[in-house]
Write a structure and sequence with these properties.
The protein is mainly alpha-helical. The protein is built from 5 helices and no strands. It has one domain: 434 Repressor (Amino-terminal Domain) (Orthogonal Bundle), CATH 1.10.260. This is Helix-turn-helix domain protein.
Length: 105
């Protein structure tokens, strides 16, 4: 099962680490306790929209961009764990099929 709070936490941690910033730096800028930010990043706490906006602001990231990234991650995780339904089309590859070659000619 995909947990949204875990996916949001992972996305926030990636952004923070990409900026080579510490939890302390971001928690101070976001005006949230270091321990709480750590729990949000680990997916142990569900952050409110106000808190997410504050953390995103501290990271210089638009909330919409973070949520779009998380939405994409959730979709991939769901597709990876989805069991095919009977009668449902199954997508194996996004590439077009190879052209048919007549070997008898």
């Amino acid at each position: 099962m995909v947990l949204l709070r875990r996916m949001i936490g992972e996305a926030l941690r990636r952004r923070r680490q990409d900026q080579h910033r510490t939890l302390r730096e971001v928690s101070s800028a976001a005006r949230v306790s270091l321990g709480y930010l750590s729990e949000v990043e680990r997916g142990q706490k569900e952050a409110s929209s106000e808190l997410l906006a504050s953390i995103c602001d501290a990271l210089g990231v638009r909330l919409a961009d973070l949520l779009r990234e998380v939405s994409d991650d959730v979709e991939l995780a769901e597709l990876a764990t989805e069991t095919p339904r009977v009668g449902a089309p199954m997508v194996v590859s996004a590439r077009p099929p190879a052209p048919m070659v007549d070997r008898a000619a």
